[in-house]
Amino acid sequence: MTNEAVEIGSDKEKTKIWLEKEGIPVPKGKGFSEEATDEEIIEYSLNIGFPLVVKPTNGSLGNGVITNIKSEDELKKTLNYVRRVLGYGEVIVERYVSGKEYRIYVIEDKTIAAYNRVPANIIGDGIHTVEELISLKNDQRKKNPRLFSCLIEMDVEIMEALENEGYTMSSVPNKGEIIYLRQKTNVSSGGDPIDVTDDLPESIKEIAIKSINAIPGLYHGGVDIIVNEELPPEQGAVVIELNPTAQIGGILYPIQGKARDIPGAIVDYYFPETKDISTKKSKVYFDLNAVLEPLQNRSAIEVELPKAPIGPIYAKKYIVEGNVNRYRFHRWLKNEAITLGLYGSIKNTVENEMEIVVGGTDKESLTTFKTLITNNPNLANITKISEENYKDYIKVGFEITEMFNLNKLKSVESAIKKLERDLKGTQKELFRIRKENKKIRESRSWKYGMSLKKMMKLVRN
What we know:
- There is one protein chain.
- By secondary structure, the protein is α+β, with helices and mostly antiparallel strands.
- Among the domains are: about 30-95, Dna Ligase, domain 1 (2-Layer Sandwich); about 275-405, 2-Layer Sandwich (Alpha-Beta Plaits), CATH 3.30.70; about 410-460.
- It contains 15 helices and 18 strands.
- A 5-stranded antiparallel sheet has the order 9-6-5-10-11.
- The longest helix is centred in the C-terminal third of the chain and has 36 residues, at about 405-440.
- The N and C termini lie far apart (about 85 Å).
């Protein structure tokens, strides 16, 4: 996906404009800049009517989202909290839409997964208090790979929700009674992800697909839709948000239902040539950390990966001896390997010896490469090559490890020897000081002084 698409999808106001342009249903509302006054926002809000939702234009994980605001006083408090306490000056005000909320993940024209996001809740059993039920619910979430870090944390929102429902932390709810602790549905704030991929109406899935396609350059992402189930699906659904970089842990590890392999679908989208290849048979891999590093430290905005080889992999390991520890030689071998479509690595083992691992789908290329090692353009003097089949995994690409540096090794050895000499000198000095100390303690003057010191202490007492 393009950077522009991610920028639009991450900005709720821009998303709303693009979706409306394509005729996709969205809640009635408007965005306000940081310069807008609370009075302007309140005036507009009174025109569209309550209940309302206030949310930051560029917020995430449900932070700063306040739903079901039912009065002007509530709205004033909300604006002060969101804009000043939380620091989200730029906000959107929308009509609140009641119904079930779904996160639907789309890749181009296909729905890959969908789950219902249920607000944080507990179910009474007639025995445990509210506080105990929250603790028991958290114990369940701790066993889930996604939810263990998304526990139900007590805060003002939960305390107010309980108070509004007439509960305290020591109340004992009746058996089967559901108590919703929040209004927002985010999994990160304690919500429950329930898989509905196979049950969601096709008309709702179609709205999600159209939403992704409405943003130029946005090829996949999460679509958040609220559905009023009292109305026909095509009338009761509104899109409330797009997520180009959606959190997918909830559908990978739902609290109910079947897990959906979104990562596999994304990989198949970007690497269609590997779609029908069993990963269990693959002998190549990507170093994901190395791929992500330039993106994470912002030294690059795009990382291009070499294509993964398709078919059986033939690999060899060569131990090459001679005058081989030259960087120019290693660089030349790397370029030749890449030209031949081979993957692998070069590393020095000891002085005048190096190890080459090389693999690919063409046996003849391996034979050609071995010939090139010896017939190099005067870059190295080879005295011996040992060869063996290589059965381990090979990383896609070709890398050269740090050069063997004899001078550096010698300086390290010299430093170690110097430290050893210094240590011996210190030990001798310590022995001399201890001997001198013993001699002082055994002298008459020391014993006389200690006796005098004891006597003076008795006189003071």
